[in-house]
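Problem statement: downstream parser choked on a complex file, so we are re-checking the raw output for the fe (ii) ion run. The parser issue turned out to be on our end (a line-ending mismatch), but while we're here, posting the original submission so the record is complete.
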Amino acid sequence: MKKFVSLSALALALALPTFLVARQATGPVSPAILYKPTPRPDRVILTWAADPATTQAVTWRTDETVTKSVAQIIESDAGPKFEPQAQSVDAKTEALSTDLGFTAHYHSVVFRNLKPSTAYSYRVGDGQNWSEWFTFKTASAKAEPFSFIYFGDVQNGIRSLWSRVFRRAYSDHPEAKFFLYAGDLVNRANQDADWAELHEGPGWVNGCTPTIPTPGNHETEKDAEGIYRLSRHWRPEFTLPENGPRGLEETCYTLDYQGVRIISLNSNERHQDQAQWLEGQLKNNPMRWTVVTFHHPVFSSAERRDNPEIRAIWKPIFDKYKVDLVLQGHDHTYARGGLKNVPDHGTMYVVSVSGSKMYDLNPQSWMNRRAEDTQFYQVIRVDKDKLTYEARMASGELYDAFELRKRSGQTNQLVEKTPRTPERRRKAE
Ligand SMILES: [Fe+2]
């Protein structure tokens, strides 16, 4: 009995300070404190505004005391004494007033006249407060094999549950040349905390491997007149091509990477205008492969969702020009299909999700492989006449795979490589 009492007393003595500390805690740290910018650059992210073989864009954030910013660049060298030889490029600066009560300055530079297939080091800052030196490599000017990673909606659980997906993807595939996001990168278009979390998972990797984003419905918000407008973060956060229809700059655009034409369409608005522009991009397309990305899928994979206007206006153009791959989001499920199952043509359609929000799947005959309740990333590799696709789960395990082979004058040959693992569903049908 004596022993029992002394143990209880000991337990109480140990528990008491913890209890007091817990009571003293003030709750979660406010985003206004956590995400306040400083004069030192953060949210450094590479994108492209022009040819990936000879240019590279970089965007970063500081507080509003930094009004004049610069980026420095030099061909990479393993020695540490290259700094005096680095070339300086003045940045463009724009102010963004945030919901968190502070104004941030976003700075951007497009490095031009770079040599193809060449590694460069760069840093960004104001002359006193600098980022670390980051390294990137320009694309080859020719069609050469490469891979990239595609993410469906990030949107929810960005810091807590999506970061592990990004980190698995990058750790297992550091050779990927860019990250492609099929819309809904954030949940709340104009809330700075969401954008902060989007940068937290990738961290320094965004400074070395470029991002190709397309906007989703969650990158829009109703204005005072009830009209949905693009997030005021979008254009300051990303420096993207302005080669789409007027008014859709940096949301509808195209760029070519080593033999692949990549087209981002803004599925939130003006579908007809983009159809005409798209036709122009596909009619005069010297690239062997074409990948189109946008948010709202041509064939929906979740229940009670359909985008008949997108199917009616854009799909005939994909069919006519035999677009190889369409990468989409929006439905918070996984579904992949086309060629054999979709009449009229050689396009493979994918809907995927990388964040934590999940919907119920609506199983349909066009799907070759499908899943629900699973976070994914996709690794896509292009090598001459062969495109290899893999959908991997948050664990890194393979869930879906296929190859497309180019055949002159015909639609692509599809080779299914799906592993013989059970379909991931919440409950058996
Ligand atoms: Fe979404």
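For whoever reads this later: The CA atoms of residues 392 and 398 lie 5 Å apart.
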